[in-house]
Amino acid sequence: MKLGMLATGADFFDRQIECGDLWRYLENDHVVASGPRRLGKSSIVNRLREQAIEKGLLAQHVDVQGVESAQAFIDQVSVHFPDASVNGYLGALGQGAKNWFSAVKKIELKGPGGVGGAIELQASASQTWYQSATALQARLTNVPALIFIDEFSVFLQKLLLRDQNEAEALLAWLRAWRVTPGVACRFLFTGSIGLNALLASYGLSAQFNDCHEYPIGPFKPSAAREMVKTFAWRGDCLMSDATANHLCERVGWLSPYYLCLLLDQTMQAARDRLDEAPSMSPATPQNELIDPDVDTAYERLLSARSRFI
To answer: What is the pTM of this model?
Structure first.
């Protein structure tokens, strides 16, 4: 159970529908996955990257929330797709990768030496990052790669505030790249700040109207209950359906982060309760979580308000 870090492996729970939907949309479009913080968007992106490996696809999860310029953005993408990795991937391109891309876009995938072609780069040559952008686009346009850009809206907001002209030029270049005829790579953008609302506030909505927006929502109640019961069991605790329901009701908005946070505190509250007064009832196992544990945990979390900001 992860409390802030990427949920990987067995800690990644549910989201099969979301992952399936995103794969389906990526077959035909570039995608923007939107949603508030603490819904596990980055974990979903990372799971897609893991699934891409299983499909024989080249995919990278590129976190750009820490960069503040167009040049830094391009460098961050480029470093995740070095020439050696791209060429090696193309040299060993499996049939699964060929089928995934060619079936939906009817493009002919070529190996090393056949990658390239005419690319129209719509960005001002006066921009200092022009050459880097040209080189990156030339290397990846005809490569069947998945470019997962995480926290793009966070980066874009900083760039718009620092240099709006540079931000607009970068957006225009990215759009020109995405709509290049026969483009083989796919982009998936995520962000905790609503990208479409941010673009609209600057009159730039047209720069992303080629992407399909896919909203990421909270867990369904059944998935939330199953997750907290499973994670409780992994922590050597028992949890009844009724207590799992009670925990979900206290959380309200079923974010996986808040569910795990309250569950973690609930297990601590149960240990504290048993340290003070061990259960003498044979009907209640020593390791069973009960509703008062959830309530105690909830009150403790409310005292640490920064958790919910």
So the answer is: 0.81
